[in-house]
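Final report, closing paragraph on structural work. Over the funding period we assembled a curated collection of sequence-structure pairs, and we close with a single example.
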Amino acid sequence: MGLKPYLEPALAALLVCSAYSVLAQTVPAATQSKFHLAIGAGISGYNPDYGHGHLLGGTLWIDYTLPRMPHLLNGIGLEAEAHDLNYGRTTAPPAQSLQAANLREDVALGGLIYTLPRYRNFHPYAKIMMGYGNADEETLAIPSKPSPPIRWHDSRTVTSAGGGMDYRVFRNIWVRADYEYESWPTFFVNPGNVPPAGRLTPQGFTIGAMYHFGHSGFR
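Its predicted structure, as stored:
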């Protein structure tokens, strides 16, 4: 399942929020708050916690920093994120095992992000999000007893927590290094056999760049 149906509503919602905050300002133009939207893209490498090593793919994110917050809440914002881990798939299972191959994971998430804009060009942040995840795989029988692959699709409500660092390299251009830990509950970790179900905990890193709309980035 593609992520386009999730990305379009998320982008629309954040743009509406941004437009509302701009229209609500009544101070002179010279002292108005800057536009608080940022859009980024990067390359992700994840341990899927299922079947084999690592998956690679692309990640998109949209950040909206909430304006005019109380001092203690300054830096809180909203984030929408989606990644599609579609590369680095295993094409065959280890010998003498029932194992998943051709695994693919895609996730769309939304939640809160808190940024510390106190270190000039360095902005550390933490985030917590919830969304929807899909996993597609083939379950292959042991090589000594070949049989047609069984294709599986599983979807779950996913929660995640993470953090990282943004660094401004030039005016509105920032780079991001991000770590994320996900939780997929009641996932059938061995679909070729009778359950019990387990819990997947994929985790990985994203390196990318983003553009902040506004004069100097966050604030």
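The first strand starts at residue 37 and ends at 47. Residues 34-212 form a domain with the Porin fold (CATH 2.40.160.20). We thank the funder for supporting this effort.
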